[in-house]
């Protein structure tokens, strides 16, 4: 493909990375890594204190930032304009609709210019606000700050809250009395949230080990030193995640031990009368189940007995073991039940059918069911939280790619729907100016891949429009076709914005996930390439006008399609990209490696898994190809996708590429996986990515399309 270079400057040269070859042989296959030195030997310590990073590595990363900024220097004014536009679509003094719990209602609000939320409460029916946690005040003076969980005690006197000040996701937990600014009971190296005991005299939390894995559930009693916390459960298997939660009735503490395929629950009374957790059903490979308390029963969402798209069972609280599970909502192929919520008179489920979500209400007494209806062709739907069990009212959110988010209260008994709040776009938004559609792209094996698109009604559909094509496709995560204020900065400039709902997500049921993982992972990549081809064949865009975008595992998707079909894309944006898949899955000291073997395969134990991953791992498949311009983004203290993965990838891309298209690498030296933590500072990173996309598409006009 003969395409113009949007980065013609010859003044800037990329940093040169020294080669220090390290060869490793596995399953009889020798593999050499020239850039393994980029991995900090002291990464565990560096995540706690970034100043400990090897100076040679720091110098190289800072040189990468200098190079990226130099190539993007001519977009500075554009980036400022994009930032102002995106900020202008955010209601600065926004607030949530407080959620009732007993005598109070709890919510959040932002103030004009504020980066972080303030957590507050009022009397149940409204009135004067009491600020519980002020995110802006807590963030003051910190280069990075992110709030974790914020939870009030059952007696409403105290707040348990978490914070991360490094971006490494090692959170500290602390307790604050309502009406005070000082904290007590501080605990370090936690997962970021905790669960109160029923009597408000202590809380349960998850402790992370030095490798950032949840290894132990502990009970902290208020006023006691953390050294005296009671160990409730320790997990010996490095391949399992672990979490602790309460129930809406506040009767039980639930410990979930799980990976991507298997679940095991343990229960103990929330009143601390017995600190020995009881197993509901011991882990059984491939068996998944989730629990929801329903008074004298537990509801069980499970894939037991071949229910691939899940079914709902119930079991007595006195003995909820699997032998006592009784089916109440049978399995239906193609209808994936995503989650359930129980109330005194109703059972609510969020499910996905025909690629779209829906909410179904079940009367617990009669078994009658009804679904809440929606009209648009593609939309996003979410169940709201609820503190209370004895109620007929739930909340849900609704949006589409053209419709701002709407929060509704729904009465499950009367079926009345009441709009509580509609997302405001201060700079203005007229849905009639935009078009959203749901397309179907035929993949390499005949599967039809849903593609959600958004464009301005005046955008010509003759193949000349640029396109931002987003994809993810892992862990069963479905990307909703919801409202995103940021993308209108592209759409108003003539872009088509598209989401490819590729295999590896659950958009079309559990099979859609399973046929996009492990030995069938390549389907994810083929689906994305097919989505691009479909958009071109139907003249929504052209290949050299498509900028592909994905983050984390979606960044791995970007790396794979860059190797498989570089000619299909005019540019690629890979955010915190998981691109050194084989190396990471071979390193069992890294935080997520053992828990993610069920998703990707275990190349240490299996030669077949090794070969499968080696066949697509982006770093391992970089070759002499005409790569398009590529922008990679990363965070120094990211425990999920370590910074050295994209650092090695971009270096190798420059070494092998046969085109003159540049490869840019921008790393946030003060953040981790989620990037900048403030709601506005994060927009600066989005503006950088969008400016890159506009530069690639040769759309440098900073004026909004009329």
UniProtKB/TrEMBL annotation:
Family: Belongs to the peptidase S9A family.
Lineage: Bacteria, Pseudomonadati, Pseudomonadota, Alphaproteobacteria, Hyphomicrobiales
InterPro entries in alphabetical order: AB_hydrolase_fold, Pept_S9_AS, Pept_S9A_N, Peptidase_S9_cat, Peptidase_S9A, Serine_Peptidase_S9A
Superkingdom in the source lineage: Bacteria
Peptidase S9 prolyl oligopeptidase catalytic domain segment(s): 483-698
Name assigned to this protein: S9 family peptidase
Domain Peptidase S9A N-terminal: 15-423
One GO biological process term: proteolysis
Presence of the UniProt keyword Transit peptide in the record: no
Organism expressing this protein natively: Notoacmeibacter marinus
GO molecular-function terms, A-Z: serine-type endopeptidase activity
Record-linked Gene3D superfamilies: alpha/beta hydrolase (3.40.50.1820), Prolyl oligopeptidase, N-terminal domain (2.130.10.120)
Region Disordered, residue ranges: 1-31
Keyword Ubl conjugation: no
Keyword annotations from UniProtKB, A to Z: Hydrolase, Protease, Serine protease
């Amino acid at each position: 493909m003969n395409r113009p270079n949007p980065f013609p400057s010859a003044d800037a040269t990329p940093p040169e990375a020294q080669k220090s070859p390290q060869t490793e042989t596995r399953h009889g296959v020798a593999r050499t890594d020239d850039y393994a030195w980029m991995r900090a030997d002291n990464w565990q310590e560096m995540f706690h204190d970034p100043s400990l990073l090897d100076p040679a590595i720091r110098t190289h990363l800072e040189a990468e930032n200098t190079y990226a900024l130099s190539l993007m220097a001519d977009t500075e004014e554009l980036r400022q304009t994009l930032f102002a536009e995106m900020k202008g679509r955010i209601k600065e003094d926004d607030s949530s609709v407080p959620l009732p719990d007993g005598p109070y209602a709890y919510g959040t609000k932002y103030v004009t210019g504020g980066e972080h939320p303030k957590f507050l409460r009022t009397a149940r029916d409204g009135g004067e606000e009491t600020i519980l946690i002020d995110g802006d005040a807590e963030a003051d003076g910190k280069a990075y700050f992110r709030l974790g969980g914020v939870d009030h005690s059952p007696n409403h006197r105290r707040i348990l809250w978490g914070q991360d000040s490094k971006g490494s996701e090692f959170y500290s937990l602390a307790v604050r009395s309502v009406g005070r600014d000082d904290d007590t009971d501080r605990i370090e190296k936690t997962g970021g949230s905790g669960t109160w005991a029923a009597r408000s005299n202590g809380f349960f939390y998850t402790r992370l080990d030095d490798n950032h894995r949840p290894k132990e559930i502990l009970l902290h009693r208020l006023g006691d030193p953390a050294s005296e916390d009671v160990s409730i459960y320790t997990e010996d298997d490095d391949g399992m995640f672990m979490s602790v939660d309460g129930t809406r009735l506040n009767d039980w503490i639930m410990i979930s031990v799980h990976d991507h395929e298997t679940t095991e629950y343990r229960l103990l009374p929330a009143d601390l009368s017995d600190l020995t957790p009881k197993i509901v059903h011991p882990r059984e490979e491939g068996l998944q189940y989730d629990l929801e308390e329903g008074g004298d029963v537990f509801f069980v969402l499970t894939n037991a007995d071949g229910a691939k798209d899940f079914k709902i069972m119930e079991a007595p609280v006195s003995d909820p073991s699997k032998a006592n599970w009784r089916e109440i909502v049978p399995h239906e192929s193609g209808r994936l039940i995503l989650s359930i919520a129980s109330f005194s008179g109703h059972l609510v489920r969020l499910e996905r059918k025909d690629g779209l979500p829906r909410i179904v209400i079940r009367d617990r007494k009669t078994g009658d069911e009804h679904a809440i209806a929606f009209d648009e062709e593609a939309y996003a739907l979410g169940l709201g939280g609820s503190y209370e069990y004895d109620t007929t009212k739930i909340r849900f959110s609704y949006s589409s790619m053209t419709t701002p988010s709407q929060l509704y209260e729904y009465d499950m008994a009367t079926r009345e729907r009441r709009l509580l709040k509609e997302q405001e776009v201060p700079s203005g938004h007229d849905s009639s100016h935009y078009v959203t559609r749901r397309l179907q792209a035929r993949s390499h094996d005949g599967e039809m891949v849903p593609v959600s698109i958004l464009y301005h009604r005046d955008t010509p559909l003759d193949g000349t429009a640029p396109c931002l094509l987003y994809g993810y496709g892992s862990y069963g995560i479905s990307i909703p076709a919801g409202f995103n204020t940021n993308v209108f900065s592209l759409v108003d400039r003539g872009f088509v914005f598209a989401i490819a709902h590729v295999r590896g997500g659950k958009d079309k049921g559990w099979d859609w996930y399973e046929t996009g993982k492990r030995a069938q992972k390549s389907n994810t990549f083929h689906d994305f390439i097919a989505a691009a081809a479909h958009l071109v064949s139907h003249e929504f865009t052209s290949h050299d006008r498509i900028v592909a975008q994905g983050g984390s595992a979606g960044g791995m998707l970007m790396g794979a399609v860059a190797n498989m079909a570089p000619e299909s894309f005019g540019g690629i944006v890979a955010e915190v990209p998981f691109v050194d898949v084989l190396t990471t899955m071979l390193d069992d000291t890294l935080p997520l490696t053992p828990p993610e073997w069920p998703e990707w395969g275990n190349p240490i134990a299996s030669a077949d898994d090794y070969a499968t991953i080696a066949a697509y791992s982006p770093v391992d498949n970089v070759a002499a190809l005409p790569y398009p311009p590529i922008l990679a983004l990363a965070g120094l203290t990211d425990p999920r996708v370590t910074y050295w993965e994209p650092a090695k990838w971009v270096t190798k891309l420059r070494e092998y590429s046969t085109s003159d298209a540049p490869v840019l690498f921008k790393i946030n030296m003060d953040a981790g996986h989620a990037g900048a933590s403030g709601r506005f500072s994060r927009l600066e990173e989005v503006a950088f990515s969008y400016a890159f996309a506009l530069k690639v598409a040769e759309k440098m006009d900073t004026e909004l399309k009329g």
